[in-house]
Amino acid sequence: QVRLVESGGGLVQAGESLRLSCTASGTIFSIYTLGWYRQAPEKQRELVASISAGGSTTYADSVKGRFTISRDNAKKTIYLQMDALKPEDTAVYYCVLLNSWGQGTQVTVSS
């Protein structure tokens, strides 16, 4: 059974940074693509970034140049470094592996 646990969310001011972490258990980690999604109130869920087994990355246009996704296979962990945060980045951020989702971590950016 796959389990994903996110951490690192919080309340910051616009322009500041946060780093989210997601640690997996119950599955082989290194061979899978993982992603970060976010869900803001009254908005559709959005794929923010993904990273393949080989380290290839993709980003939503809204976060390109500000967010960086990375992975540490030895720790079964992925990260989302979020810089220059904006109020519109406020959302619950979820880590996803295959069809498994973490519980989410709240990111709130004040103006």
Report on this structure.
- There is one protein chain.
- The chain has 111 residues and is mainly β.
- The chain has no helices and eleven strands.
- The strands form two sheets. Strands 2, 4, 5, 6, 9, 10 and 11 form a seven-stranded mixed sheet that branches.
- A hairpin with a 2-residue loop joins strand 9 and strand 10.
- The model has no long low-confidence stretch (mean pLDDT 96).
Quaternary structure type: single chain
| Uncertain segments | none
Q: Report the end-to-end length measured between terminal Cα atoms.
A: 40 Å
User: What fraction strand?
Assistant: over 45%
Give me the Rg, rounded: 13 Å
Number of helices: 0
Overall, the morphology is globular
Q: How many β-strand runs?
A: 11
Q: Give the overall average pLDDT.
A: 96
Helix content: under 10%
The string of secondary-structure elements, in order, is EEEEEEEEEEE
Structural class: mainly beta
The biggest sheet, with number of strands, parallel, antiparallel or mixed sense and barrel status, is: 7 strands, mixed
Short description:
This protein is mainly β. It is built from no helices and 11 strands. The chain is globular and about 40 Å long.
Please render the helix and strand layout as text.
Elements: E1 3-7, E2 10-13, E3 18-25, E4 34-39, E5 46-51, E6 57-59, E7 67-72, E8 77-82, E9 91-97, E10 100-101, E11 105-110
Tag the structure with descriptive keywords.
four-stranded antiparallel β-sheet; 11 strands; globular; seven-stranded mixed β-sheet; 0% helix; single chain; mainly beta; 53% strand; 111 residues
